[in-house]
Design a protein that fits this description.
Elements: H1 36-42, E1 56-59, E2 62-65, E3 72-80, E4 84-85, E5 93-105, E6 110-114, E7 118-121, E8 128-140
Length: 143
């Protein structure tokens, strides 16, 4: 989403990853402070749907979401029982399990994860995901 778009998740689940920003503002639906004047100064009220990002399958079980932000990359892993290599081993990554029971394994560690579980994967270390489920991987896009 471009800057200035007000958005919310009212039901269901969502995976959100964002580029660097110093102007994240709350619009409500929270107990945290909402700066109404600041929000009204930056929000873009233009109606419209910017469209979905269509993922590109990079390998068996791995889809990448091409984004206009060079600061990050986002992948989806669909594990079906066979080991799926986690992309971008040259950088640190965060793996977030959205559904199922998965195990993240590297040469130095093994971690069982369920829905909502996350793991930090070290830069320079190959990792695989096994089990059945869906995970998202976020990592830097600029190396």
């Amino acid at each position: 989403m471009p800057p200035g778009n007000l958005h919310a998740y009212l039901s269901g689940g969502g995976i959100e990853i964002m580029a660097n920003s110093d102007n994240v503002m709350r619009g409500g639906l929270t107990r945290k402070y909402v700066n109404v004047e600041g929000l009204l100064a930056i929000v873009d009220f233009t109606p419209g749907f910017r469209g979905l990002i269509t993922p590109i399958q990079e390998s068996r079980g791995v889809w990448r979401y091409p984004t206009p932000a060079p600061e990050f990359e986002l992948w989806r892993i669909e594990a079906d029982g066979e080991a799926v290599p986690v992309p971008a081993s040259t950088s640190g990554r965060i793996l977030l399990v959205a559904d199922g029971d998965l195990t993240a394994s590297s040469p130095t560690a093994k971690l069982d994860l369920v829905r909502g579980g996350a793991a930090l994967l070290a830069a320079g270390e190959e990792a695989v995901v096994t089990g059945r489920g869906t995970a998202f991987v976020g990592g830097p896009g600029i190396f």
